[in-house]
Specification:
Length: about 160
């Protein structure tokens, strides 16, 4: 069965026309020492038969950041497939007024160290940052980078 996720990619446009996106560094021991390719759109898995993609994206945003998603009009960028077959539907919203400084990151548990029999808790993400689209392309996991290209196309087409 294909894993399906949905996420929200807030963006903002600076006075000089630079477009930035809010991205999250993945938490846990595997990602702690990595930077490039270790960031993600705030997203999570959902069952498309039981929940609408935008509802799931909003729920996951709240769960992962402990914040309400930005107010505004959401647009679906599209559904992007990873080489693994996983699919993520991405929504964008103008996040110009959004402040993520009060984020309280959700946690997950896993056996750590491996094969130790001990369980430890880790944050789902350990930080969020506004970064320009060029830097975001370097930071995001490979399967999510096409969403940035699509966002860039939409912003250019809007003439902003």
């Amino acid at each position: 069965m294909v894993t399906t996720s949905a996420g929200i990619l807030p963006y903002r446009i600076a006075a000089d026309g630079t477009v930035s996106a809010l991205v999250a560094h993945m938490g846990g021991p595997y990602w702690s020492a990595k930077d490039e390719g270790a960031w993600s759109i705030v997203k999570g898995e959902f069952d498309p038969d039981g929940e609408a993609a935008l509802d799931a994206a909003r729920r996951e945003f709240r769960e992962e950041l402990g914040l309400e998603p930005p107010d505004g009009e959401y647009a679906e960028l599209g559904t992007f497939s990873y080489s693994s077959g996983k699919r993520v539907t991405v929504f964008v919203v103008d996040g110009s007024a959004f402040d993520a400084s009060d984020a309280v990151f959700g946690e997950f548990e896993m056996e750590w160290p491996p094969r130790s029999g001990r369980t430890a808790s880790f944050p789902e993400v350990d930080r969020v940052e506004w970064v320009d689209l060029d830097r975001a392309r370097e930071l995001l996991v490979k399967g999510q980078r096409p969403a940035l290209d699509r966002l860039d196309e939409l912003v250019r087409a809007s003439g902003r």
